[in-house]
Design a protein that fits this description.
By secondary structure, the protein is of the alpha+beta class. The chain is 18% helix and 37% strand.
């Protein structure tokens, strides 16, 4: 079974030209031709972005269904992450990740877990997240993701994917914590890894896709056309997977 995933920090659909353009972001995503899309930094009903429900609008434009998790509330306004797909799916869990209470001003963070029916009686477990900016904060959040509520949960059965904006490079302790239990989709490909940040001159690998189970990574790419370079401060990370059905599926 072949599945194409995208993880994309859309920067509330405000581009590097400071233009708010949800339709432009949808065009970038549509060009990736993905089956499952994980998005970070979405505004829902926020005054600063015209009170648009960006998760719903992007899903509508892409003819997909969406699950949105608000990591942060500002009165009636929401800000967070989403998973979009046209495949049959079910929400497993959505919730907050721990932070550092003694450090004021840090954005709340969360994660969203959806099980996607990829055919042949096989479900792909997909967790989308956006970790904090402070290394210690990231490590606390990575520990939570590895723990019983998420990746160590009984329902997190391979094949499975963890993806999102981790704000952590492959040289970080956060990355090493995660790769101790789940493998980087870009490892062992025999080619230089693909970076996605900043979009105008990508040299940092902070957006990641991690995989578990009988999954072969067939390709990794990131669009670098003029539209993708300006639509957000990140580029999408596109990963093609081939998933072997479990015995007896």
């Amino acid at each position: 079974m072949k599945i194409r995933l995208v993880t994309y920090n859309v920067h509330r659909c405000v581009g590097t030209d400071r233009k708010l353009d949800v339709e432009r972001v949808a065009e970038v995503i549509a060009a990736c031709n993905a089956d499952i899309v994980a998005l970070q930094e979405l505004d829902v009903g926020r005054r600063r972005t015209g009170h648009v429900d960006q998760a719903h609008r992007l899903a509508e434009l892409l003819r997909m269904k969406s699950h949105f998790h608000p990591a942060m509330y500002v009165e009636e306004e929401r800000y967070g992450d989403a998973i979009l797909t046209a495949l049959p799916e079910r929400l497993v869990r959505a919730g907050a990740l721990p932070g550092l209470p003694r450090l004021r001003g840090l954005e709340p963070r969360g994660a969203l877990w959806v099980a996607v029916d990829i055919g042949g009686g096989v479900e792909l477990q997909v967790i989308n997240t956006h970790l904090g900016l402070v290394p210690r904060e990231q490590q606390v959040q990575a520990a939570a993701l590895i723990g019983d509520d998420w990746m160590a949960a009984e329902a997190f059965i391979a094949p499975a994917v963890l993806l999102g904006d981790f704000n952590a490079s492959p040289f970080s302790r956060t990355y090493r914590m995660l790769t101790s239990v789940i493998r980087d989709a870009q490892s062992g490909l025999g080619r230089p890894p693909t970076a996605t940040f900043p979009s105008g001159f990508p040299f940092m690998r902070i957006d990641h896709v991690f995989v578990a189970g009988a999954i072969t990574v067939r390709a990794v790419e990131s669009p670098y056309d003029a539209r993708a370079r300006v639509a957000s401060d990140h580029l999408p990370l596109v990963v093609d997977l081939e998933i072997e059905p479990p015995a007896g599926a």
